[in-house]
Amino acid sequence: MEGTATRRRALVTGASSGIGLAFAREFAERGYDLILTARRQARLESLAGDLQTRHGIDAVVLAEDLADPLAPGRLVDAIAQKSLLVDVLVNNAGYGVPGSYAGTSWTDQQRFLQVMVVAVAELTHRLVPGMMERRWGRIINVASLAGVLPGVAGHTLYAASKAFVIKFSESLSLETARHGIHVTAACPGFTYSEFHDVTGTRAQVNTMPKFMWLDADVVARASVAAVMAGVPVFVPGRVNATLATLSRVLPRSIVWGLMKRNATKFRRV
């Protein structure tokens, strides 16, 4: 295991599927014990059993719905009651709210912000002090290429929430580096997962070229390598990295125009 002879433990949110599941597998392969959280307890227990059998690690399941404002506090309290330490935090839980902003309910948007912004900030705030005391920690905040590119219609708060995660991670990485803590905002693009099934946009995104897509395992492996190397913002995949670079160097009007014309291919408005 990197940097220590003592087994460390990673907390992965949204661990029951997709990129979160891939992060759980990646850390288990690296010999980390795990705390797995998501809404679906049965899936988490199945995953925990599999990873324990395959890799000889310990995996604790604590099912929570981070859309509940009390969930982050309950989760951290439950971890403390079990006398567990969190050395790695992967803030991965997330989803999208399809449709126009005015065409969706505020309840749905509020729950979205709770998961995507508030829970990320709160879990990090609650767990960073322990990492600082132990002089070692790794935090991966799963953002998105959408947080780098101009915003487009549909999933109105999604890009905004991911832009928050990126800026939050950049600032936090500067604050905590002297304490032995690395913080990375991982910014994947299109990734094979259940995300588009949940948002009802599978038909649209299936029309995207295959070269635009990455496997969740590839995203997780590369993102873990990035946080270990102390990279504050990481865009997995050459195509995605190229798009991120072009969005910075091309005139904003050109990039925004391209996004506007192509948004309906992967978003429901």
Q: What does this molecule look like?
A:
The chain has about 270 residues and is α/β, with parallel strands linked by helices. The chain has a single domain (about 10-265), classed as Rossmann fold (3-Layer(aba) Sandwich), CATH 3.40.50.720. The relative contact order is 0.13. It has helices spanning about 20-30, 40-55, 70-80, 105-135, 160-175, 195-200, 200-205, 215-230, 240-250, 250-260, and strands at about 10-15, 35, 60, 90, 135-140, 180-185, 235. Residues about 195-200 have low confidence and may be disordered. Strands 3-2-1-4-5-6-7 form a seven-stranded parallel sheet, sandwiched between helices.
* C-alpha geometry: globular
Could you say how many structural domains there are in total?
1
**Total strands:** 7
The proportion of residues forming helix, as a percent range, comes to: 40-55%
What's the order of the H and E elements? EHEHEHEHEHEHHHEHH
Structural class: alpha/beta
CATH topology: Rossmann fold
Number of helices, where a helix is a run of at least 4 consecutive DSSP H or I residues:
10
Largest sheet descriptor: 7 strands, parallel
CATH class: Alpha Beta
> What is the CATH-assigned architecture?
3-Layer(aba) Sandwich
Low-confidence stretches: 196-202
Percent strand equals: 5-15%
Rounded to an integer in angstroms, the radius of gyration calculated over CA atoms is 18 Å
Strand order, largest beta sheet: 3-2-1-4-5-6-7
Q: Could you report the average pLDDT, rounded to the nearest whole number? A: 89
Assign the CATH superfamily: NAD(P)-binding Rossmann-like Domain
- What is the terminal-to-terminal distance? 46 Å
